[in-house]
Amino acid sequence: MAVERGAIRGLAGLTLSLLCCSPAFAKPIVAVTLAQATVVTAADGTSHVTPLAAGVAVERGGLIRYTITAKNSGTDPARRLVLTGRIPAGTAFVEGSLHGAGGHAEYSLDSSSFSAQPMVTKTTPSGTTTVPADPSDYVMVRWIKDGALAAAAASAFSYDVRLK
């Protein structure tokens, strides 16, 4: 998929946002893939990650890992790369499960505003207060690449969700 400017949506709610300083000069070609796997922790504490095949059921409480990868096969860097993944209905984001290098994460409670630490207002008997949101309430996560994605390079991030 060639992307010079704009947003692409697909792959189970995956969003790629890519802005280039000038489409006339920059020629990144970015392909985005989404992989799903189950994560099972054995009695000895080791985790086993198995690709999730179509039609395979995951039981309540099970973990699914989403890995979103962007690969630039173009000749110029892809600037301001933002990869966004949904937290599917019936699942909850697992706090501390996001992994990636060369970028930073932001989370959303409403699919439109993002923050590194979403906050919510709680009403207590003594008034209202603003507190960090529970990560299980996140509905989207996005990975913002620090710097450009070089030509012939790839960047990936992953996160886990637990079935409710």
Account of the 3D structure:
The chain is mainly beta and 164 residues long. It has one domain (5-163): Immunoglobulin-like, CATH 2.60.40. Helices cover 0% and strands 51% of the residues. The strands form 3 sheets. Strands 3, 4, 5, 7, 8 and 13 form a 6-stranded antiparallel β-sheet that branches. Strands 1-2-6-12-9 form a 5-stranded antiparallel β-sheet, with no helix packed on it. Residues 1-12 and 17-22 have low confidence and may be disordered.
Question: What topology emerges from the helices and strands here?
Answer:
Layout: E1 5-10, E2 14-19, E3 30-41, E4 47-51, E5 63-72, E6 82-86, E7 91-93, E8 99-100, E9 103-108, E10 119-124, E11 127-132, E12 140-145, E13 153-163
Instruction: Label the overall shape.
Output: flat
What is the structural class?
A: mainly beta
Terminal CA distance:
34 Å
* Strand percent estimate: over 45%
> What's the number of helices?
0
Largest sheet: number of strands, sense, barrel closure: 6 strands, antiparallel
Mean pLDDT: 85
- The CATH topology comes to Immunoglobulin-like
- Percent range of helical residues: under 10%
Going by CATH, the architecture would be Sandwich
Domains, number: 1
Per DSSP E runs of 2 or more residues, the count of β-strands stands at 13
Radius of gyration: 18 Å
Secondary-structure element order, as H and E?
Answer: EEEEEEEEEEEEE
CATH class: Mainly Beta
| Unreliable runs | 1-12, 17-22
